[in-house]
Every structure is written in structure tokens, then in C-alpha cells.
Amino acid sequence: MAPTGSSFFERGRLDTDLLSGPLEFAVVRPATDEDGLPLIYLFHGAGGTTQTLINNRALIEDAWAKGMLPPCVVVTPSTGQSLPINHRDGSERWEDAFLGPLFDQVGRAYGASALYSRCALAGLSTGGAAALRMALKQPTAFAAVAALAPRIEAALRLTDLEPASGTWAEEQEFSSVYGSPPDEEYWAANNPASIVTRHAEEIRGSGLRIFLECGDADSFGLHRGAELLHRCLFDSGIDHEYHLIHGADHVGESLAARTLAALQFIGDVFDPPPPDHSVGVLRSLVSHRQEASL
Questions:
Q1: What is the β-pairing status of strands 7-14 and 2-4?
Q2: Is the model's pTM score more than 0.85?
Q3: Euclidean distance between CA atoms 28 and 54, whole angstroms
Q4: Could you tell me the CATH number of the domain that includes residue 156?
Q5: Do residues 35 and 111 lie in contact, with contact meaning Cβ atoms separated by under 8 Å?
Q6: The total number of structural domains that make up the chain
């Protein structure tokens, strides 16, 4: 691996029959020999590449240096324009590749923990949606998920989708994933808001930590889908952190600070801060007052 500053960077390749071609990926990890490090999958947006990890490398190093994020292995698989989801017909099994052979290869080659409970999922746009899908479908498997401006629909049923929402894939891409005509049940089984409404009890009791954010000026209107998911989580009593960033768009100068906030959220999951004494005092006082009023 090539060292720069406090980290090593390397590109890798996975050959697997789960996909129609090789899976390219990039890895950043601390410049140490420590093994068993937490793992973060950082998924890029549609049309992105491993350049996403290069772009965020300085932020990751900064988060390590400031104690916002413990030493960890960060991996960005390159999915191009594809929706990184298991296709209904089984022709492309992206999620199985991420959580099977890629997970194993990264653990062996780069010292990542072999425990899914030491793995967090994060991503922007299409990558944020991918992270949410995997985490919500398997909530007991992961420590945390952080989605920035996720490309998710503001609907619970396929028939409620609005093509003008900006979240629709190209027709050919959409059909390749969900079938032609699209399988409504398969779509709902992979739609984050629908997953929450169907599996609220499992998610609520899983311990999965959830971070969700979007700019309220998102050019693709993705704040509508984020708001729906937030309401589904809130109404289901599922703990999560939600940020609607005033004036923020899908990209722009705000994105660095937003990414750092997501990394810090994951860092606090991997390495929890000590209890806040003042909060404990307040809660004890409120509890005593409530008991006295009964």
C-alpha cells in the first residue's frame, strides 16, 4: 500500500461469479500494523468511482487526528452507474458480493475486523441508498449506517412513485434491477421506508445506529424521500439522528462538513464517548418530579 501522511491507500480487485465482471475497489487504512480494525463501507454516488475515497481521504485522516473516528479500514467499491443492489433475476448480486467475498478479502488483506458488528455502512446519494438498504434489511448485522442525501423515493408503494421526483433510474437500469414490468413486491422489499414500516420491531430492537441527512434545497428533491424515511423511523419509535440542512444542495461546499459529521457519528458508535454527567443529573431530576406528581 502507498503511504501518505497518516494513511495507506491501495486499489484492489475482486473476481467473483456474483457479478458479471470484476469488482474494483479502493482502501484507506491507518499507517499502522494493527489488525482487527473497524470497517466502513463508503459507497459513492451514481457514476462515481474509487475517486470518492481519494476525495475523502483527507477528511478521514482529519477525523482520526481529532479523535472523531477511531483507526479503521475504509473501503469504496466501484459500481459506476449501476444500482448496487441484488437484481431480482439474480444476474447481478452486488450486496452479496459486498458482504461475502469482498468483506472476507478486505479482512484478510487489510486487517479489518471479521465481525459484521464492527462494520458500518455509509454513502452519498445512490451510495447512501445502498447503505440504507443493506443495513435496514439486516439490522442486527451492522453497527451503524450513515446516509447523506440518499437517493430514495418519497413513497411506500411502487405505484405511488412520481417520475418527476428525480429519484427514478433510467428505465433500462430500473428494469434490470426490478424486472420488466417492475416487481412491486421486490421494489418494496428494497425500499428503505417500506422496509421500516414492515420490519419496525426488528429494526427497533436491533441496536443499529442510524444517521440520515439531506439538504432542503437538493436539486433532485431527495429531501422528500429523506423526510418520509425520517417520519417512518420516528413514528415507529426507532432511534436515529436526522439532519435537514438548510440551504444545502446535493453537492457543494457544505458536503465536506456533512461528511465529517457522518464520520463522527460512526466514530461515536465504534468508540462511545463517556456519559454526559449533566444529562444524567437532569434526567434524574425530571424523573423525581414526575414520580412526585403521581
A1: antiparallel
A2: yes
A3: 9
A4: 3.40.50.1820
A5: yes
A6: 1
